């Protein structure tokens, strides 16, 4: 897959090129429309990552038509959630998602932006509320089972812990792997980060 070649190339980059390439890869599943959102922990001890995120990161997120929210800022890291607003809105507006969120104190008459604000408040209070998984595209039944410390057997564990519908989950994992592999191979062909984001979106977004 060229992971070592990718990381060697990434680590050789500096400044804007470095952070934009890091973000394009880290957010490839969101760019592709395969996930509504993804979280990133920007470690403050990683000076190269932290400084370049602050200087160039938010502009790149905006330029590739995504949004982000800072969920938590502490002494050692800033945790952000990057999301596709239209996909997240659709994902959270299903009856099952709404019932679940309302039960946790979310408003019954709210937009995705309102839900994100509530998530941020709960993140600050609980440091990583379990419903975050729903925002990240994890199936609701698996989110619930994880929250409730289920005695069910964990059927798969990769992008999340799977307790239900393992065949469906495996198909999703395979799609995620395909997108990540495609992202790396496209980058190693010499495409810029902006070009890379456009290629990922054009290749996958309408087909998810």
Automatic annotation (TrEMBL):
InterPro entries reported in the protein's UniProt record: DUF3793
Pfam families for the chain: DUF3793 (PF12672)
Protein's name in the database: DUF3793 family protein
Species of the source: Clostridium sartagoforme
């Amino acid at each position: 897959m060229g992971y070592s070649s990718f990381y060697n190339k990434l680590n050789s980059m500096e400044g804007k090129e470095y952070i934009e390439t890091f973000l394009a890869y880290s957010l490839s599943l969101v760019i592709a429309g395969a996930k509504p959102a993804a979280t990133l922990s920007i470690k403050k001890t990683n000076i190269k990552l932290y400084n370049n995120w602050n200087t160039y990161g938010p502009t790149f997120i905006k330029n590739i038509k995504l949004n982000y929210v800072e969920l938590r800022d502490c002494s050692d890291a800033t945790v952000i959630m990057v999301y596709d607003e239209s996909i997240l809105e659709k994902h959270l507006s299903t009856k099952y998602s709404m019932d679940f969120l309302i039960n946790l104190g979310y408003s019954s008459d709210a937009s995705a932006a309102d839900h994100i604000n509530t998530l941020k408040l709960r993140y600050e209070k609980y440091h990583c509320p379990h419903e975050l998984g729903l925002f990240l595209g994890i199936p609701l039944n698996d989110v619930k089972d994880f929250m409730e410390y289920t005695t069910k057997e964990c059927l798969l564990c990769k992008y999340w812990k799977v307790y239900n519908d393992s065949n469906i989950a495996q198909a999703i994992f395979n799609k995620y792997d395909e997108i990540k592999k495609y992202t790396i191979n496209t980058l190693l062909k010499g495409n810029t980060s902006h070009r890379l984001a456009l290629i990922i979106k054009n290749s996958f977004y309408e087909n998810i």
